[in-house]
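In keeping with the milestone schedule agreed at the kick-off meeting, the structural modelling team has produced records for the first pair of proteins. Each record is given below as a sequence line and a structure-token line. The laboratory manager (R.T.) confirmed that both were archived under the project's standard naming scheme.
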Amino acid sequence: MTRTATPAVHPIAAPAQARFAIAAFSLALGAFLVWGAGFASANALHDTAHDARHAMGLPCH
């Protein structure tokens, strides 16, 4: 029986500045989406969900 060595995977550490930028962008995007959904009308939210289901190829009616 022959064994082959599996190479070790070492994650690359991102610098703190890059992690901060990613976190800030994620927070801003999340806040924008929550704010947008909070002030959108019910019809707009329904139409968006309806269109998203069709875009994924799922039936909705």
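The second protein of the pair:
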Amino acid sequence: MDNNFSKEQMAELFDEVSNFFFLLSEPTRLKILHCLCHGERPVGEIVSAIEATQANVSRQLNMLFRAKILARRKDGTQVYYRIDDPATLEICQNVCTRVASNIMGRNGAAKASDTFNVVHTS
């Protein structure tokens, strides 16, 4: 942390960090990010892949889009989403890999990192 920040700036920083982690605390949003880690997909594919309702997926996609984590484009009647913030994806990948390692370690399995391999987008 930068010691040149005022108390007010530090409070704002911690509020923003808290909001960021709150955004990532919803399992459906994490499933969406996992679904998109290999590239762009239309909404219908995301809905099918994560087995959630269209309304819920649309709501979560919109939240991730407004937070500038996802980008979207329209092609005819289809709306496609892709990860627009590789740093957020990397955070999720690191945390998921760590948690998966703990789970797999308890269950006697190995190679948790293979579970969350992603294609980095730019």
